[in-house]
Each structure stands twice: as structure tokens, then as C-alpha cells.
Amino acid sequence: MDKILVLDFGGQYNQLIARRVRSLSVFAEIKNYDCITSEEIKNNDYKGIIFTGGPNSVYDPSSPHYSKDILELGIPILGICYGDQLLAYMNGATITSAKHNSEYGKTTLISLGGTILKGVPEKSVCWMSHTDYIKEAPSGFKTTGYTNNCPCAVMENNEKKFYGVQFHPEVTHTEYGMTILSNFVFDVCECKADWKMDNFAKASIEKYRNELKDKKVLLALSGGLDSSVVALLLNKAIGKNLICVFVDHGLLRKDEGDYVEKVFKDTFDINLIRVNAKARFLNALKGVTDPETKRKIIGKEFIEVFTEEAKKIGNIDILSQGTIYPDVIESGRNASAVIKSHHNVGGLPKDIGFKGIVEPLRDLFKDEVRKIGIELGLPLELVYRQPFPGPGLAVRIIGEITEEKIKIAQDSDAILREEFLKAGLDKKANQYFTVVTNTHSVGVMGDARTYGYTLAIRAVTTDDFMTATWTRIPFDTLETISSRITNEVKGINRVTYDITSKPPATVEWE
Ligand code: XMP
After folding, report:
1. Which pLDDT tens digit goes with each residue over 234-255?
2. What is the DSSP string of 13-28?
3. Mean pLDDT, the chain, as a whole number?
4. Are 483 and 456 in contact (CB under 8 A)?
5. Is residue 507 within 6 Å of ligand 1 at its C-beta?
6. Is pLDDT of 67 > 60?
7. The pLDDT of residue 104
8. Per-residue model confidence as pLDDT tens digits over 164-217
9. Angle, alpha carbons 161-86-145 (nearest 5°)
10. Which residues are bridge partners to 448 per DSSP?
11. Contact 104, 124 (CB under 8 A)
12. Cα separation, 438 vs 97, whole angstroms
């Protein structure tokens, strides 16, 4: 299979570059610039290399650079944004800074033709985001495109097969971005389009059937997309030798535990053990109000329950996890500030005593995992499920977690989901749920005074969950939701709508 290496210099859109290349049916993988040597690149048979963007200036002492050996490997290179400047700099160009004249947003690109701009009209729109720029292409290169503020927006050296674009071809705002990537991948690197998702499921079932033969494999199944797809793949490969443990911490959405059990046990006849551990989790969380402490307790308890279960089953050879490609990339990055300690079932400790780990989705992006889920017959409800945090409703219940508050969270969330579906808002909001605040307020019902909880509705629209805007919900829908919740959910006498984006807020309240 032909592969493209995306060499990561710290830009925001690097995953997008790999996804775009893969959408051309060519496999692309991302490596941090300091995690792979030029020797390793050479030995890995990459057909081409893409230098990504990055926030730095090549002259910053702290900016990421790469050994010039890479220029001697005979592998084609495409530099994007910072990667373009770095490629020019490594080839002897001077990089200029336009400190007071950054170019940002949609810009008109004038094309002078050439290899990398084949099929791009003389005038088109590209997406720029830079301060430094290349005034003059380095020796051996020629300029084949420019903008008002950027005299060398595209450069090429056909002899060495080095190309650079100052703008971002991977973002959809660049009209002919895919044409440019396709020119590089097919015309320059001569890749075959042989990365097909249809083959993936079949090939991995075959592979694990051979590799795992009589081995017993344990999987922590959460009912989320990733672990569900692994369960289906491995079930097809090794049948009852796959044992799925579903830890129900009692903090799932209404009836969700039963639904997950039914789908996997009844529809797919998967070897599934459901551990009903609600009492244990509630006990461990008793009296705890601090958000981080709650998260840590749930994470720790989860691992303990799972480990105990593994010991009970005994003789397990392999642990399987639903790790996907963005998890792999994230864990290879420098840690940024910890806002919340995340918990998900992909993060089990490696020292429970297994002989190996199997992660069938390690190379895939979420949209690719979805395609396999659909192919394997996973109910669409699970394939397109909105994200649900590992600690579950615990991060949506402020203050101490009690049975009463869990029921309020579950019942109100069920009403909200129902009304969002009816109003078609499930297509507009990427995540929506209710939050049981710890605030009580006075209300009146019939002729009597009430003193109930205030409930908050949260709905966000986002691409990547790193930033998000609050979803504009029509007033009529808000009214229906509020009226249904105050009438049908005992303990709630006031409903509010959270109109804060991320940042400054986060999506979940805790
Ligand atoms: P925040 O609240 O950090 O959430 O803005 C961003 C996205 O991450 C989800 N989330 C989690 N997912 N384990 C997960 O698997 C967790 O501990 C966790 N905490 C938050 C959240 O639902 C949103 O989609």
C-alpha cells in the first residue's frame, strides 16, 4: 500500500491534511517532526512527504526544524504554510516577516500554471494564515503562484520534486485545495489509490482470525462507537473467544445500559458480561463535590471493576482497545494544560497482566470508523450517537451525586433528546444534554410553594469540540422543552438555557 508521511510541525490543521489525503484513497500517517528520523523515513517506503504548517517563524530559536538529510532521500516533498517556509529556508531562501501586515482569511491566488497548480484556474480563492512569507523562491525553484501580499505563494522544483504552498490546501475555503493535494499525491508521488475502507473490515477480520486463533481477548465495551466497532470486528474474527466487559456505572443515559446489552447480546450474539456497579460507584462518590475528584474516583473505580472482572474470567491472553488515530497522535504530543482529567475506556493500564494488546482501529479517523460500523451493521443510532463522556452523567450533576439527581438528569435528558429530534435540531447541534445544577429556587405549582432544582439545557455546535458555539434553539422549542421538563420531571421547577460558547466555558459543566 502506498503511503504519504505528514510531518507535523505543530499546525492546527494537520489531522485534516491526513484525512484529505486518505479521502483520495491514499494512506497518510502523521508523525511529529521529532519522532521520526530521516533514516526511518527512508526505511518506511513513503511515496511522499508533506511538511505541515506550524505557529512559528523559522528564525525563532524554539521553532521546529528538520535535518537537511531529508532533502537527499529522493522522496517528493510538499510544504504547507510554515512547512513551505521551512522547505524554502532549508533550500537557502530568506524568509521575510510582515509583522504589521499578516495575511489571514480568503485571498485571491493568481496561478501561473505548473505541476502542482495543474487544473487550478488563473484566479481562485485560497485560505491564508501567515505573518512571515517567502519573497523570492530559492535557487532551483520557480514561483508559480502569488497573491497581493505574498509574491511567492506557490513554488516548485520539478527536478527535485519539491513543492511549497503558503496557503492551506487542506481547508475547504481553498477552492482548489483538493486538486493541489491530488496533483501532489498522484502526479508527483505516483501513488496508487488503494486505501479503501471496504477492504479494511474484511482484511482485519482475516488478519485477527489468523493472528489470534485460539487466544482469549478481553474488550472493555462502553457502547460508544469505537469500542462497539472493535467488538463487531473481533466477534467476526474469533467469535466467543472475544469477551466483552461492559461496566455499567449507573451514570449512563436513561435505559442506555439495557439498550447496549440488548444490541450486543441479542442482535450480535456477542459474549458480553454486564457488570452492574452503580451501587459501588455511588458509594465511592458519596459526599464528593469537587469536579476533578469525582472524575478521578470514577476513573479509578472503573479500572478496579474491570481488573476484578478480568481476574474472575481468568486466562485472558490479550487486551483489546478502541483506540483510534487521533488518540494515538494526541498521546504523542507534549502535554498541554490539564483542564479536565479525561476518562474513557480506551485508557486502561497496560499492566493488568495481559500478553499483548490489540487495537484494530489505531490507524483510523472517526469518520472512517463510522463507515466500518455501518458496513458491519451497527445500528445507526450507535453509529451517529453524540459523544458521551466516560464519567457519564457525573459531569452533568453539580455537587454531590445522588440517586435523585441521577434520575432527574436521565429523565430530563430523555425529554430534551426527544424534542431535539422532533424539531430537527439534532442536525444543528453536535452535542446536547441537561445539567442538574446544585441551585434550588422557589417556585409555585398549583397553589403550593415548591423549592426545586434549577436545570440547565446545554447545546453546542462544533466541528472538533475544541471550540464550540451555543446552538440557536427556536424559542418555541425551548418553551416546549421547559414546559415538558417542569411538568414531567419531579424535583425541577426552573429551566435555563446556557448561552456560553467554548471558550470561555467548556462543553460539559464539570
Ligand atoms: P469539554 O467539556 O472538555 O468537552 O469541553 C469536550 C468534549 O469531550 C467530551 N468529554 C469527555 N470524553 N471522557 C471522554 O471520553 C471524558 O472524561 C470526557 N470529558 C468530556 C465532552 O462530552 C465533549 O464532547
Report:
1. 999 999 999 999 999 999 999 9
2. THHHHHHHHHHTT-EE
3. 93
4. no
5. yes
6. yes
7. 87
8. 999 999 988 899 999 999 999 999 999 999 988 877 899 899 999 999 989 999
9. 60
10. 445
11. no
12. 52
Closest among 162, 131, 137 to 56, alpha carbons compared: 131
Q: How far is the CA of 376 from the centre of ligand 1 (A)?
A: 27
* Ligand 1 atom with least separation from CA of 341: 17
The more confident residue out of 248 and 334 is 248
- Ligand 1 atom at minimal distance to the Cα of residue 224: 15
Query: pLDDT band for position 336 (50/70/90)?
Result: very low
Residue whose CA is at the smallest distance from ligand 1 atom 20 = 389
Question: Is the Cβ–Cβ distance between 286 and 311 less than 8 Å?
Answer: no
Nearest CA to ligand 1 atom 24: 387
- Verify whether residue 122 is a known catalytic residue: no
**Average pLDDT, integer, range 141-167:** 97
Reported pTM:
0.80
Determine whether 191 is an active site residue. Answer: no
For the CA of 295, the closest atom of ligand 1 is: 17
| 413 CA → ligand 1 middle, Å | 17
Atom of ligand 1 nearest to the CA of 390: 13
Burial label, 428 (beta-carbon count in 10 A; 0-12, 13-18, 19+)? middle
Q: What is the DSSP string of 274-334?
A: EEE-HHHHHHHHTT---HHHHHHHHHHHHHHHHHHHHHHH----EEE----HHHHHHHTSP
* Contact 502 CB / ligand 1 (< 6 Å): yes
Higher pLDDT, 29 or 13: 29
Q: Is residue 170 among the annotated active site residues? A: yes
Q: 49 CA distance to ligand 1 centroid (A)?
A: 33
